[in-house]
Amino acid sequence: MNDSLIIESDRGIVRLTLNRPEKRNALSIELLRRLEQAIERIAVDPSAQVVVLSARGPVFCSGHDLKEMVGRTEAEYRELFTPVIARVQGVATAAGCQLVAACDLAVAGDEATFATPGVKIGLFCTTPMVPLVRAIPAKPAMEMLLTGEPITARRAYELGLVNRVVRNVDLDLEIKSLTDTILAMSPLVIRTGKNAFYEIQGLDEPDAYDRAIPIMTGNALDHDAQEGISAFLEKRHPQWK
């Protein structure tokens, strides 16, 4: 049996590859557990600076494995819908679209499509909806959810679901460009900024400033902020801690 999730690490980049191409990379309970465990390990690994989630085969992820969703108990359904965070290429439907919407950055091949088609089989994409409505405007999100029809990579870019659209043959090059840029930054600052981004995202403006000011103050006192400012003034490359 093939390993459902391939994990590779190289110089700060952790690559997680969905490896169920014969099942259109459907998210089985076993695969979701592997993803969750991998992300938990990455979260406490100071050497991990960038995570790239991709997939083998022509389909990135077709969503939850429907064979595992028939006749399950409520507790098993809750386990199945464990939230995941990813970055994606290829066709992404249902929970596969959820992976894209929940990721921090997304690069799509120009042939990719995205859909939340659960409504067509009587199972509304409620959990995929959670990150989707935070990633794109309400009206197009509702259209995707109510019709189940796919959108193109270009439309996904227009809506803000993905950051960049490139030719499929250029995906690796584009991902390398992003990872190289992020790897050049302070790992501490990247982690601080990402955490702050999601923490203040749902707050109103006064509460967001109340939370952002102490975070930025603490950041300013860190070694890497002082080093970065000094390096800028001295016209040299910073040496991150």
Description:
The protein is an alpha/beta fold and 241 residues long. It has two domains: 5-183, 2-enoyl-CoA Hydratase, Chain A, domain 1 (Alpha-Beta Complex); 187-233. It has ten helices and nine strands. The strands form three sheets. A four-stranded mixed β-sheet has the order 4-5-7-8. A three-stranded mixed β-sheet has the order 1-2-3, with helices on both faces.
Question: Keyphrases for this structure?
Answer:
alpha/beta; 2-enoyl-CoA Hydratase, Chain A, domain 1; 2 domains; 3-stranded mixed β-sheet; 46% helix; globular
List the helices and strands and how they pair.
Elements: E1 5-10, E2 13-18, H1 29-43, E3 50-55, E4 59-61, H2 74-80, E5 91-93, H3 95-102, E6 107-109, E7 113-115, H4 126-135, H5 138-147, E8 151-152, H6 153-159, E9 164-166, H7 171-183, H8 187-200, H9 205-221, H10 223-233
Parallel strand pairs: 2-3, 4-5, 5-7, 6-9
Antiparallel strand pairs: 1-2, 7-8
Helix pairs in contact: 3-4, 8-9
